[in-house]
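Task: sequence design from structure.
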């Protein structure tokens, strides 16, 4: 129990033919809510933060808090840097004890993405850490600040990319995008199946918010072993905080803290239920 390598957690998910939830956090309340849900569901999770979030949630505060929360948890938790862009930030995260990092070279030409990913793999190996990369282009961006469109991952390229980089997990683009979808997306399961058949590493689905429970489970049946959820947790936190502040009576930080924790806890628990594939589908 406690802090584990993401590779171990994904291996376990693979053996159980399910996906592990990777939940983005931005403050103390989000960390508490996610860990509480994981412990209650007795299910390992990944706690993650993306490089673009660091101006709001500096790594020097978030890093030690996330790692310490994982160390003290009653379930296995991996701590991950999401959408890393620079080796310097990857190194900082690894120095804080993160057990995995993502190098996101998805906007780069193929060969440059390979080169950048190889640098990340070489750095992470010094720490025994797991590396995720992205091939193809997931729509939008983690904080909604940019959108270069969606470019589906080419299965043949994915095979070459994995062989050349030795990466541990691959984020795929199959019609998924970050942020709230206007309508639930139609994921290209034929492409996912082809990628799964040509590669033999765990696949990652970004842009989890708004994907239907049925599609989550279908994706898990086709090699998706990690599913990223960010927007749904931020939204759930905000809704609970709003409701608390609009409720009757006096308000204080401590009540607000509990409301924020509760918002994230409820969202994370709801997704863990779906990802575990053990219960019939229900989305409430
Ligand atoms: P959402 O914000 O759409 O849940 O995406 C999260 C994500 O993919 C983080 O990398």
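Answer:
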């Amino acid at each position: 129990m406690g802090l584990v390598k993401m590779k171990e957690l994904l291996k376990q998910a693979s053996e159980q033919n399910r996906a592990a939830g990777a939940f983005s956090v931005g403050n103390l309340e989000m960390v508490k809510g996610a860990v509480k849900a994981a412990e209650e569901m007795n299910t390992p999770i990944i706690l993650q933060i993306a490089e673009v979030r660091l101006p709001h949630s500096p790594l020097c505060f978030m890093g030690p808090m996330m790692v310490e929360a994982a160390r003290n948890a009653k379930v296995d938790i991996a701590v991950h840097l999401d959408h890393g862009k620079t080796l310097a930030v990857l190194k900082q995260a690894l120095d804080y004890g993160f057990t995995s990092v993502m190098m996101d070279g998805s906007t780069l030409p193929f060969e440059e993405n390979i080169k950048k990913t190889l640098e990340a793999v070489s750095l992470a190996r010094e720490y025994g850490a797991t590396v995720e990369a992205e091939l193809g282009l997931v729509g939008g961006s983690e904080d909604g600040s940019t959108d270069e469109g969606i470019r589906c991952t080419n299965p043949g390229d994915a095979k070459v990319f994995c062989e050349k980089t030795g990466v541990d997990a691959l984020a795929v683009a199959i019609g998924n995008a970050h942020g709230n979808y206007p309508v639930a997306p139609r994921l290209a399961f034929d492409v996912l199946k082809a990628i799964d058949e040509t590669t033999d590493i765990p696949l990652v689905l970004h842009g989890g918010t708004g994907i239907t429970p049925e599609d989550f489970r279908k994706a898990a049946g086709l090699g998706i072993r990690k599913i990223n959820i960010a927007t749904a947790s931020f939204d759930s936190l905000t809704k609970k905080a709003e409701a608390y502040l609009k409720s009757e009576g006096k308000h204080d930080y401590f009540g607000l803290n509990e409301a924020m924790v509760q918002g994230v806890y409820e969202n994370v628990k709801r997704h863990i239920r779906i990802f575990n594939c053990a219960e019939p589908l229900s989305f409430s």
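The mean pLDDT is 95.
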